[in-house]
Structure formats: C-alpha cells, structure tokens
C-alpha cells in the first residue's frame, strides 16, 4: 500500500491549466506541469483496495494500485514497467482518456477519487525523459506476415503486439501520416503530436513497417492483401459520420466536424498556413454536445471566432451522480472540458429545424426550437422558435459506423446488426484470415477501448498463426463501454 493515511490527510489536487487568454494563442496542451512531490502525495491517496474497482473501470485492466504504490515509493522505473504491462500507449490514455477508472475508484464513494490519469501521464513522461522507453524487438521471427489496415490506436496497438511477438507487420494507412484520429481528429491542445511521433519511432525501431498514402481496397485490393499476408487486421475506424438532413443543409458554411478538424490540425502542425474552413470573425454553431463538438469549440476559439455556441438536443445533465448512474458506473453528469473553460455558450434541449441562408447561399442562421422528451421522443415546445446567427455551422453528431464502400464491400465481410464488422471471441471476422479491432468492430468509442481491442485482436492473430497462447487479451469483443 502507498501512504496508509494518504486518503485521510491529502486532498485531491490536479495540475493547473494555463491561463485561457494565453492558451488561446497557441495549440499546445492546456495543462501545466505538476511537481513530482505533489504527484507522489496524490498517488499516496490510493488505498490499495482489496477489490480495486479502478481495474473494473479500465478496459485495459491497468494495474493502478501497483503503480500508485511504486510512485509513492519513488520507484518510477518499476512503475513505468507495470504501466506498460497492460497498456502500449499510456501517453495517449494519460492525456485523452475520460478515465472511467476514476469514476470507479472506491475513494470516490465518499470523497474525491485518486487522480489516476495524472499519475499515469506523469509516469510515462518521466519514463521517456529518463530514456527508459526503448525499442523491444522480438528475440526471434516467426516468418509470418501480418497486414494492419488503419493506423489509429487500435491498429498501432495490434501492430506493436504482433511485431514484438515476432511477426513481420506492415501498417497500411490511407492518410499521409500515421495516427488515425490521434493525428488529424484530436486537436493538439488535447494531445501534442510529439507524443505520437516518439512512440512511432519506437515502433519503427522494433521492426513495424508503416506505409502511408495507401487506400486499401483502392490502391491495393483486399484480395491481394489476403493472399500476400498470412493474416489481416482491419482497424479502419468508424469514419461514416451522422448527417443532419434538414432544409438548407446544402448551404455554404455547413461542415462536418471531421471536415473542419483535420485541416485545423494541419495548421497546428505547420503543414498548412490557413485552414480552408476558418472560424475567424464568425458566429460558430456546433451541433452536438459531445467530445468532438468540444474539440470544434476549442479549435474555433483558437481561430478567432466571434462567438461559439454548442447545441445539444438532450437536457442538461445533473452536476453530480443521479440514482440512474450509481458508483462505480461512468455517470452522465455535466462536464466542463478545457474547451468549455475557454468560452462560448452551451444550449441544451434544443433542436435545429432548418438552416437560413443569405442571398449568396451562405448560411446566416439556424432556426431553433426548444424540445422536451415525451414518450421517448423529442417534441417541440410551442412558441420557443427563434433564429440563432451562424456563419459557420459544424456538425458533430457522432458516427454511424465504418465506411462500407471500398474495402469492406470488396471483402464482402459480415457486419453485425449495428453495421460494424462482426467478429468472434478471438476478434476474427467471417473471413478466415481477417481480424478486426477498434471502432471498425465496436462502433464509435474511445482510445482506451481501441488499445484494448488492438491488444486482444493481436492475441487472436498470434494464436491463429502459431497455435500458441502468448499475448494478453484484456477484453472480449462483447464487452460494452462504460461510457
Ligand atoms: C474529433 C474526435 C475527438 C475524439 N476525442 C477523444 C478523446 O478525447 N478521448 C477518447 O478516448 N476518444 C476520443 N475520440 C474517439 C477515438 O479517437 C476513437 O475511438 C479511436 O481513435 C478509434 O481508434 P481506431 O484505431 O479504431 O480508429 P481511427 O483512430 O479512426 O483510425 C482508423 C484509421 O484507419 C484508416 N483507414 C480507414 N480505412 C482505410 C483503408 N481502406 N485503407 C487504409 N487506411 C484506412 C483511417 O484513415 C484512419 O487513419 C475522438 C474522436 C473524434 C472523432
Ligand atoms: S479503487 Fe481507487 S483507492 Fe482503490 S486501489 Fe483503485 S485507485 Fe486505489
């Protein structure tokens, strides 16, 4: 156990964020550093519970009490080793995860939970700084070839596990750079891309090969891939976005979030001078109250938007757990992300009826109406219709599943009732040597689930290719997200 009295004597403390006025001037991560003595005290709050519910909350089964104790004892190197025992990329989860482990923490029943995520990122940052994160090439090669399609967190986790198990792994990515949503979806202010690049350096040194600019199903046929490789892992994500087919959708100035965020990320990365979709000086309305919407809010502010409003059809969630979401579940509560701290307005229980354009066919406003839930349906509240000015509208209403045209159609792989790629317990699809991991099989989810799926699919591939039971499989394909 860490400090036996830590949870009684030390209140929860997290690092301060950089002042809003300052951080809006750049795309750097918003949090300031945290002194290691402070972090040690935070780790010391862990009670090393007999039944650590934090494990249950984490899809990766992270060994949280173990690394809390090691940090408390200042044994950072062993803490880093225990961290990597279950998670290939703690720097991704340590910056981006909504931390279902913290909402499951036993201390959270009657006090503030342990700041697990902060401990995680501090361990991995220290490990990179100290040079403890080194390539781990395999001791021997199996002679088997594996193709991974897609380089998001699930594809990368699968690739790293399989390379280390001795297979020759090639990752195919249709974008010009590796990383999936980590690269061109998620903004720098949530995770700076050098974290991704240094991990890719490690993977290259271990022997993983990356081929960018290859759209599998177009540039190389699915059949070619199946013949040339002993196994294929589909990790293409859930990229088919949900649209809003209402009157005026065709007006200029209305874009999907994933049309807006990638060029903004390219500007932040110095690959582009100005984004073709720019919020500067505009009233921006973001439709959709989730994380993707929040990323649009933060990016719009950095581009110099005149005003930013985020719309959500659901009612405003409660400030604390309701009876419907008891501990240790991940509760639906009102959350203020770093992007929301930076300004803008959030409107709940509103629906967009139509878009209004100026004479040039460019959007100038939305017609809104308040709604209430009646018999499970949203019904308009009479007399609440109004116009909300908007010269840029961003649709952030989630994703309906993987893109079917191209690769999946060519493979003619079986889909599940939700339209995702169906798989068995070993993450194998309906096709003999084809496996699936991440959002492509699970549907839109989280980084932590993508990494867990990549690890589990790798275990399935390795067993398929060699008949051995070597790699860990943290989850079953049917495990549901806690979020
Ligand atoms: C804007 C945004 C912000 C998010 N923020 C968070 C967050 O803060 N925290 C969190 O936990 N989750 C977040 N998520 C969700 C998270 O990013 C995803 O759940 C996760 O990235 C899924 O990983 P993946 O590997 O399955 O797929 P992806 O990351 O989507 O990667 C799939 C890759 O496959 C490639 N690809 C697809 N088809 C082909 C093909 N035929 N040939 C070659 N390449 C192909 C794509 O180009 C893409 O690079 C966010 C999602 C979005 C959209
Ligand atoms: S549930 Fe919380 S207090 Fe208990 S072991 Fe996990 S992190 Fe520590």
UniProtKB/TrEMBL annotation:
Ranges in a coiled coil: none
NCBIfam families: GOGAT_sm_gam (TIGR01317)
InterPro entries per UniProt: 4Fe4S_Fe-S-bd, DPD_II, FAD/NAD-bd_sf, FAD/NAD-binding_dom, Glut_synth_ssu1, Glutamate_Synthase, Helical_ferredxn
4Fe-4S ferredoxin-type domain mapped to chain residues: 37-68
High-level lineage: Bacteria, Bacillati, Actinomycetota, Actinomycetes, Pseudonocardiales
Keyword set, alphabetical order: Amino-acid biosynthesis, Glutamate biosynthesis, Iron, Iron-sulfur, Metal-binding, Oxidoreductase
PROSITE patterns per record: 4FE4S_FER_2
The organism of origin for this protein: Amycolatopsis xylanica
Biological or metabolic pathway of the protein: Amino-acid biosynthesis
Protein name: Glutamate synthase (NADPH/NADH) small chain
Keyword Iron annotated: yes
Biological processes annotated in GO: glutamate biosynthetic process
GO molecular function, a single term: metal ion binding
Domain of life the protein comes from: Bacteria
């Amino acid at each position: 156990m860490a400090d036996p009295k830590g949870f009684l004597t030390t209140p929860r403390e997290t690092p301060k964020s950089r002042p809003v006025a300052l951080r809006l001037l750049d795309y750097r991560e918003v949090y300031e550093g945290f002194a290691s003595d402070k972090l040690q005290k935070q780790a010391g709050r862990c009670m090393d519970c007999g039944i650590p519910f934090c494990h249950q909350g984490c899809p990766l089964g992270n060994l949280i009490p173990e690394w809390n104790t090691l940090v408390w004892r200042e044994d950072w190197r062993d803490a880093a080793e225990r961290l990597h025992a279950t998670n290939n990329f703690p720097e991704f989860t340590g910056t981006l995860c909504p931390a279902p482990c913290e909402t499951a923490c036993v201390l959270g029943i009657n006090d503030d939970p342990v700041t697990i995520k902060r401990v995680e990122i501090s361990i991995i940052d220290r490990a990179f700084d100290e040079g403890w994160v080194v390539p781990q090439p395999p001791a021997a090669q199996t002679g088997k070839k594996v193709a991974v399609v897609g380089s998001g967190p699930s594809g990368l986790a699968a690739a790293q596990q399989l390379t280390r198990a001795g297979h020759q792994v090639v990752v195919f990515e249709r974008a010009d750079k590796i990383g999936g949503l980590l690269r061109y979806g998620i903004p720098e202010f949530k995770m700076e891309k050098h974290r991704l690049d240094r991990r890719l350096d490690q993977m290259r040194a271990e022997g993983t090969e990356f081929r960018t600019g290859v759209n599998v199903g177009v540039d190389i046929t699915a059949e070619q891939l199946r013949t040339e490789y002993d196994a294929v892992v589909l990790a293409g994500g859930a990229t088919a976005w949900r649209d809003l087919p209402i009157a005026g959708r065709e007006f200029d100035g209305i874009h999907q979030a994933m049309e807006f965020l990638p060029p903004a990320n390219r500007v932040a990365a110095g690959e582009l001078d100005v984004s073709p979709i720019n919020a500067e000086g505009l009233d921006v309305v973001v439709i959709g109250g989730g994380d993707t919407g929040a990323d649009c809010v933060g990016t719009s502010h950095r581009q110099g938007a005149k005003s930013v409003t985020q719309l959500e059809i659901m009612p405003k969630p409660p400030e604390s757990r309701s009876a419907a979401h008891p501990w240790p579940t991940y509760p639906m509560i009102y959350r203020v992300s770093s992007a929301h701290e930076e300004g803008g307005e959030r409107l709940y229980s509103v629906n967009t009826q139509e878009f209004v354009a100026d004479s040039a066919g460019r959007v100038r406003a939305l017609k809104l109406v308040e709604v209430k839930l009646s018999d499970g349906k949203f019904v308009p509240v009479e007399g609440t219709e109004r116009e909300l000015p908007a010269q840029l509208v961003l649709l952030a209403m989630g994703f309906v599943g993987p893109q079917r045209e191209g690769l999946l159609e060519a493979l003619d792989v079986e889909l599940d009732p939700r339209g995702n790629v169906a798989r068995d317990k070993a993450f194998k699809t309906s096709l003999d040597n084809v496996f699936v991991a991440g959002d492509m099989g699970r549907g839109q989810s989280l980084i932590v689930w993508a990494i867990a799926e990549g690890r589990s699919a790798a275990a399935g591939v390795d067993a398929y290719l060699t008949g051995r039971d070597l790699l860990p499989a943290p989850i079953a394909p049917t495990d549901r997200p806690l979020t």
